[in-house]
Automatic annotation (TrEMBL):
Cellular component per GO, a single term: membrane
Name of the featured protein: Hemicentin-2-like isoform X2
Location of the protein in the cell: Membrane
Membrane-spanning intervals of the chain: 664-685
Naturally occurring in which organism (per UniProt): Galleria mellonella
Membrane topology note: Single-pass membrane protein
Primary location recorded for the protein, binned into one broad class: membrane
Record-linked InterPro entries: CD80_C2-set (IPR013162), Ig-like_dom (IPR007110), Ig-like_dom_sf (IPR036179), Ig-like_fold (IPR013783), Ig_sub (IPR003599), Ig_sub2 (IPR003598), Ig_V-set (IPR013106)
Keywords, alphabetical: Disulfide bond, Membrane, Signal, Transmembrane, Transmembrane helix
């Protein structure tokens, strides 16, 4: 052997390869492994050339394709050889150093599919054979789509609606072995059923896909006939119109614990999910369409639409319904819209108004009637506290208010006049406190006498009562002493005595009872009084004169006298006492005229030019003359005058006349002493008091002293 090898190693090798050709029988000559490679790719065939023992080494390595040598390596000459037909364009590489040895074949074609085996020769050991069954896989074409009517579909398809069924074919041309076609909706395998095609070397898979809102938008068709390469795939985008799935309103601003506050701006956000294409969002507040909202935003990835509404809630909007309506205009109207509604809970400080319950005027109540006041409130949240005010001070339990003063009703069972005043109530909730406009309550009460009840004021009697409202009717019962009762009615508290028909010279019993529309008086006012004070004052400026042949009483009129009475007192000739000889009225005049004649002028003023004059007839020494001023209430005390000596002398009748009246003369002497004393005093006084100027006529004035007056008074009575 050794000798032969030395000849020409290459030649020897060739001979060796070809002479020792024999057919490899898989399984018998050696093991066979399956190996797959892609058309156009490369593959590496491995062959273990390690010896079983360490002292052994291989001498020759040969690769056969279908028993035809394509590569050899001889360790003794270290020569690599390759079949030129197989190693076209230098596509094979060998690695005989590392174990196992490798033979890499590139630019594979379908012709390379075959049974390969390698043969390893050793110095001493037995030859080894290892088989490799190489298959070449040809990838198919990229899949493409055809719709139901056979039109090619590119990129996108639709639009469809929910519950439609999508029918789409995926086709693949070529491929060895024939590929499998699978449909994926998103990442989910939905159809792996292979189908044949009418066209040779074309495979087809028809997909029937029920559509719903969750159907992924991307549909994939994958074709595969090997694990060596990823599947070939194509995708199409399905456009599915879906109705609005859900609508929700949330407050994003201006809410305090889920509630709104009146007047405080709040922002609501309406989020709409699920609709495609973009829905239209509309806002409604009860039946009002709100147009002032933000521009609607749209995210076509999440299919979310958002609209913001700014709202300044008012009290009236508490309880109102806020709706966000999303409409997908691409859908049938019946299923195109969805809405979310929320009820507004608008909180506000109470709105308070005070009202009086029960009959009658809004602000009046009669004493002893109940007084019911109610604090009418409108509030959200409900009122938690009420406070009542009377004349601006807080009403507390007790006193005239009872115990229940902190509720929305204030109840006084029996109103008294102390309950009059200005009422208000305040209500508070956790938003705030409000006080109502005050209400003035007047407690009416029937008339009552003030003090003695009836008073005499000048020529009237007055019924002194108080009541609310002021009395408007007065019933009088007047009864002058000893006379009949007279019933009178007046509209004012004053009853002029002129309305009483009867004489009024003494005392009078009067009662009055007032009415004010509420009730009549409980107790009438009653009084007995004397009318003496209404009599005129005593005349105090009188004199005696002898005129026109007789004595005259002349007086300056006094106020309020309607007539005058003169009286003549004679000195009795028998028992030396004065007796009333006659009495008579004189000088009737109107009150006004008399008033004019008043003498209240300042000293030095011109004296009145007229007088009240009454004829007295004949007066003798010690006779007296009286003058009293009178009106319907009676007469004043008379002013008594006695003629002076001078006056008597002036009136002296002829001497025989004097004798005829002898009895007068007798008593004359007895009084002369007294009179002369008085006269001297009075004269001085009168002279000083009389107005200066024109000297008086023959007049003498004698005024009596008190002692004498008392005497005459008792006589007159
Ligand atoms: C064999 O193919 C692989 C990819 O298929 C490539 O990366 C590699 O370079 C190829 N080797 C040769 C020797 O061509
Ligand atoms: C190659 O063959 C030798 C001898 O039979 C063995 O010991 C070795 O493990 C084999 N190597 C491989 C990679 O199979
Ligand atoms: C195949 O041919 C190329 C160039 O023709 C050569 O470089 C290469 O070594 C050959 N392969 C083997 C295993 O001989
Ligand atoms: C080689 O592979 C092909 C296809 O896979 C098969 O038909 C054939 O029987 C295999 N040959 C051997 C010897 O295993
Ligand atoms: C509305 O629908 C979306 C999906 O479309 C879901 O994520 C969300 O939870 C839903 N919201 C409500 C309130 O049901
Ligand atoms: C809404 O859009 C209109 C026109 O597209 C624009 O004039 C207006 O300013 C926008 N309003 C808001 C609140 O974004
Ligand atoms: C979203 O809208 C843009 C522009 O209108 C469009 O290019 C994009 O394809 C849309 N995306 C989806 C998921 O519909
Ligand atoms: C509104 O909110 C207030 C405060 O939280 C609560 O007391 C009240 O019951 C709410 N009203 C309604 C109608 O929910
Ligand atoms: C309250 O005020 C009214 C007048 O506004 C007054 O007549 C009444 O006496 C007052 N009452 C009290 C208790 O102050
Ligand atoms: C007279 O009567 C009037 C009215 O009654 C009264 O005012 C006046 O005081 C009276 N005069 C005298 C002096 O009594
Ligand atoms: C005195 O006399 C007069 C008659 O002159 C007589 O009327 C009168 O009653 C007498 N008085 C007494 C107290 O006697």
């Amino acid at each position: 052997m050794g000798r032969r090898m030395r000849v020409t190693p290459a030649l020897y090798l060739l001979l060796l390869i070809y002479t020792r050709v024999y057919t490899f029988i898989p399984g018998v000559d050696g093991p066979v492994s399956q190996q797959e490679a892609l058309d156009g790719g490369n593959t590496t065939l491995h062959c273990n050339s390690s010896a079983d023992t360490s002292d052994e080494q291989f001498t020759l390595l040969v690769w056969y394709k279908d028993n035809v040598p394509i590569f050899s390596f001889d360790t003794r000459v270290e020569i690599e050889w390759s079949n030129e037909g197989f190693n076209r364009s230098g596509r094979i590489r060998a690695d005989v150093v590392s174990q196992p040895t490798a033979l890499t074949i590139s630019a594979l074609t379908e012709d390379d599919e075959d049974l390969y085996h390698c043969r390893v020769d050793f110095l001493n050991s037995q030859t080894r054979n290892i088989g490799v069954n190489l298959t070449i896989t040809v990838l198919p074409s990229k899949p493409f789509f055809l719709d139901e009517v056979g039109n090619k579909v590119e990129d996108r398809i639709g639009p469809y609606h929910e519950e439609d069924t999508l029918v789409l074919s995926c086709l693949v041309i070529g491929g060895r072995p024939p590929p499998h076609i699978s449909w994926y909706s998103g990442s989910t395998l939905v159809d792996a059923s292979d189908g044949a095609s009418d066209i040779p070397s074309v495979k087809e898979n028809v997909l029937y896909l029920p559509l719903n809102r969750d159907t992924p938008a991307e549909l994939y068709c994958k074709a595969s006939n090997t694990d060596l390469a990823p599947p070939l795939e194509a995708s199409v985008h399905i456009e599915i119109y879906v109705s609005v799935q859900n609508v929700s309103i949330q407050w994003v601003e201006g809410v305090i614990g889920h509630t709104l506050r009146s007047g405080r701006p709040a922002v609501a956000q309406c989020t709409v999910h699920g609709s495609y294409p973009q829905p239209i969002l509309e806002w409604w507040l009860d039946r009002q369409h709100l147009t002032k909202h933000s521009n609607q935003s749209w995210n076509n990835l999440t299919r979310t639409s958002i609209s913001y509404l700014e709202l300044i809630p008012s009290v009236a909007e508490n309880g109102a319904t806020l709706a966000c309506v999303a409409t997908n205009t691409a859908m049938a109207p019946s299923r195109g819209s969805k809405a979310d509604v929320i009820k507004l809970n608008v909180t506000y400080s109470p709105i308070v108004e005070i009202a009086k319950l029960g009959d009658g005027d809004l602000s009046d109540v009669a004493e002893l009637d109940p007084l019911h006041l109610e604090c009418e409130v409108q509030a959200n949240p409900p009122v938690n506290k009420f406070i009542w005010y009377h004349n601006d001070s807080e009403i507390v339990p007790g006193y005239i208010w009872g115990s229940n003063v902190y509720s929305h009703k204030l109840l006084v069972e029996e109103a008294s006049r102390r309950h009059s005043g200005v009422y208000s109530c305040a209500a508070s909730n956790n938003v705030g406190e409000t006080r109502a406009e005050p209400l003035t309550i007047t407690v009416y009460y029937p008339p009552e006498c003030i003090g003695p009840g009836i008073s005499l004021v000048k020529e009237t009697i007055k019924c002194n009562v108080h009541g609310l409202p002021s009395p408007d009717t007065y019933f009088w019962h007047v009864q002058p002493a000893g006379l009949d009762v007279q019933h009178l009615t007046t509209g004012s508290p004053i009853l002029p005595l002129s309305q009483i028909n009867e004489p009024l010279s003494g005392t009078m019993k009067a009662s009055c009872e007032a009415g004010n529309g509420i009730a009549s008086q409980y107790e009438v006012c009653e009084r007995i009084f004397s009318l003496e004070s209404l009599r005129p004052p005593q005349p105090n400026q009188c004199d005696l004169a002898f005129e026109y042949g007789e004595f005259q009483m002349r007086c300056i009129p006094v106020e309020n006298a309607t007539y005058y009475e003169i009286s003549v007192w004679r000195m009795s000739t028998s028992n030396s006492s004065l007796y009333l000889e006659r009495r008579g009225s004189i000088g009737f005049g109107t009150r006004q005229a008399l008033a004019q004649g008043g003498v209240e002028g300042a000293p030095g003023s011109i004296a009145p030019t007229w007088l009240v004059r009454g004829a007295l007839g004949v007066l003798k020494s010690a006779d007296e003359a009286g003058a009293a001023a009178c009106n319907r209430y009676g007469c004043s005390a008379p002013l008594l005058l006695r003629p002076t000596e001078n006056l008597l002398l002036a009136a002296e009748p002829p001497w025989w006349h004097f004798i005829l009246e002898k009895d007068v003369g007798i008593s004359l002497g007895a009084v002369v002493l007294v009179i002369s004393f008085v006269v001297s005093t009075v004269l001085v006084v009168r002279l000083i008091r009389r107005p200066r100027g024109k000297p008086p006529p023959v007049i003498q004035v004698v005024q009596l002293d008190d002692l004498t007056r008392n005497y005459i008074d008792t006589m007159a009575g």
